Amino acid sequence: METKIPKLEKKVITVAFVTSAVHLGLIAYAAVKLGITVPTCVTNVKPFTTGAFIDHGQKRYEVHVLAKMWGFEPSRIRVPRGSIVDFYLTSKDVNHGFNIDRTNVNLMAVPYVVNYAQARFETPGKYPVICHEYCGAGHQAMNAMVEVAEADQPAEAEGIEAAPSPSIEAAAQPPGQKIMQTKGCFACHSVNGSPGVGPTFKGVWGRKETLSDGTAITVDEPYVIESIRKPQAKVVKGFGPVMPTIPMTDQELKDIIEYMKTIK
Ligand code: HEC
Ligand SMILES: [Cu+2]
């Protein structure tokens, strides 16, 4: 027996086909004729920590925009008219927005994620960039500028901070200091001589210390190791036996000792 499709159902099927065909047609039209691209989260670009402006020649530019509280890196770029600019966007801290006036570029800057959009700039003029995602006290002042110049003017970018070289960064914060920060040691120990729950680490290395039982010791490696592994074994006079036993690997202990030697 033949099954007959009811008339109404045929209508519904036709309408559904026609609407989706129109929909797909419009998407194709927007992409091909209007040059609208969908913002994309790219996974083949590693999140970066500084802004960059790269001239690929032939009016093709690549901009790495780093959004941060409360500004953009670069804060201003200038490209000649007719340029095609690839914007890669990430955030250094919290979520920010990135909207370039009079373009289709409207992205979110998300930490650890790189988003991408492309813009073609045909008309000379200023294209203000704003953060359109509330990001804290300085949000309303968070902006940048894209300037489109006449074709014969050179491209340039401003406001890109030089990346601290790894060696300078490492010198600025020794591993031991980092460990003490993450383990919460500085909650009780200062490094500038100011009093705290525990003795200050300023000048701690080689310091003569009197313990609660009256014996005198010198702060050296075995004593520091014992102080950290068994905080209550020797208690410095004038302080309570309140230091917690904080788990620590041998390497972490070593790094801490190296750092403590340097706190003068
Ligand atoms: C809750 C507070 C507290 C925290 C957190 C703490 N300490 Fe202490 N620490 C003390 C107190 C109080 C003393 C002094 C009494 C004693 O010797 O136990 C002390 C003593 C020491 C001493 C001996 C210092 C001297 O002058 O003789 C060392 C070394 C030390 N702590 C290292 C650390 C390290 C490293 C950490 C982090 C992993 C840490 N402490 C975290 C309270 C703390
Ligand atoms: Cu904002």
Largest sheet: 6 strands, mixed
**How far apart are the first and last residues' alpha carbons, in Å?**
97 Å
Please tell me how large the radius of gyration is.
Answer: 30 Å
Question: Structural class, judged by helices and strands?
Answer: alpha+beta
Assign an overall shape: elongated
**Which stretches are low in confidence, meaning pLDDT under 50 for 5 or more residues running?**
none
Average pLDDT confidence is: 88
Number of domains: 2
CATH superfamily of the largest domain, by name, is Cupredoxins -  blue copper proteins
Order of helices and strands: HEEEEEEEEEEEEHHEEHH
Number of helices: 5
- Roughly what fraction of the amino acids lie in strands? 25-35%
* CATH architecture classification name of the largest domain: Sandwich
Bound molecules: heme C, copper (II) ion
Helical content (DSSP H or I, runs of 4+): 10-25%
CATH-assigned fold name of the largest domain = Immunoglobulin-like
The CATH class of the largest domain, by name, is Mainly Beta
Describe this protein's structure.
This protein is α+β, with helices and mostly antiparallel strands and 264 residues long. It has two domains: 40-158, Cupredoxins -  blue copper proteins (Immunoglobulin-like), CATH 2.60.40.420; 166-262, Cytochrome Bc1 Complex, Chain D, domain 2 (Orthogonal Bundle), CATH 1.10.760.10. It is built from five helices and 14 strands. The protein has helices at 7-32, 166-172, 175-182, 221-229, 250-262; strands at residues 40-42, 52-57, 60-68, 71-73, 76-80, 83-91, 96-100, 106-109, 114-121, 125-130, 143-149, 156-158, 208-210, 216-218. Strands 1, 2, 3, 4, 6 and 9 form a six-stranded mixed sheet that branches. The chain has a six-stranded mixed sheet with strand order 8-7-10-11-5-12, with no helix packed on it. A hairpin with a 5-residue loop joins β13 (208-210) and β14. α3 (175-182) packs across α5 (250-262). It is elongated. It starts with 6 loop residues before the first helix and ends with a helix. The mean pLDDT is 88. The site of heme C has 27 residues, from α4.
